[in-house]
Amino acid sequence: MIAPTDICLVGAILLSQPHFRTGSRRKKTSLMPAICVFCGSRPGNNPGFLAAAEELGDWISANNWTLVYGGGSTGMMGQIADTVLDTGGQIIGVITTQLAQPDLMHHQVRDMRIVSNMHERKALMHQLADVYVTLPGALGTMEEFFEAATWAQLNIHSRPVAILNTDGVYNPLVKLLDSMVDADFLASGCRRRIEVFDTPGELTQWLQNLPVRDSPPPSSH
Ligand code: AMP
Questions:
Q1: 144 pocket-lining for ligand 1 (C-beta < 6 Å)
Q2: pTM of the predicted structure, to 2 decimals
Q3: Other CB atoms closer than 10 Å to residue 30's CB: what's the count?
Q4: pLDDT in tens, 67-124
Q5: Which residue puts its alpha carbon closest to atom 18 of ligand 1?
């Protein structure tokens, strides 16, 4: 029988397989690794939150990656999308018909994929993603983060999962994860696969050195 710890190990081994390559060997002209960002639809009350979204957006464009996100125009989502657009980067928005309203959906994102429900939305985001990054946010952000982390644990995917803990906003979450390990509900190997960074600089340094899929994200056509 495969123990949960072994499942995480299998995931780590998969990451070293030939269809992944390291960032340093990436051919920037042909490859557009996709970073799936989960973040709040509100801006939060600390200017550091929006600044973090801006810094990550700048990095995505400068490094020729593709932002995959929830397609919103507000809060943290709007900030990261605006930054990537302003700096000439690539974006794929994935939004449901319910959320595709004039005041919620980002209308400058040209590759906006409108799907019928949340299940389809997350399935498409998973299909497009090479790595998952969670910025500050609330319930929707947590739901998306926990799905990505849980699916890594179950080896449904082998992509890296990271949290940006701006100003300690996710300290209680980190503590919860650690207490799950202490209580022996969560395998320590699975916990270690969730990277936690305090600053956008530490996050982007980690992104720079990731193994990424050796192909562009699937197109909508
Ligand atoms: P929350 O953290 O509760 O603000 O939810 C943010 C997450 O839920 C995002 O990553 C989106 O996937 C989704 N979401 C919530 N509100 C919106 C919105 N207005 N437009 C698009 N996606 C949204």
A1: yes
A2: 0.86
A3: 10
A4: 999 999 999 999 999 999 999 999 999 999 999 999 999 999 999 999 999 999 999 9
A5: 72
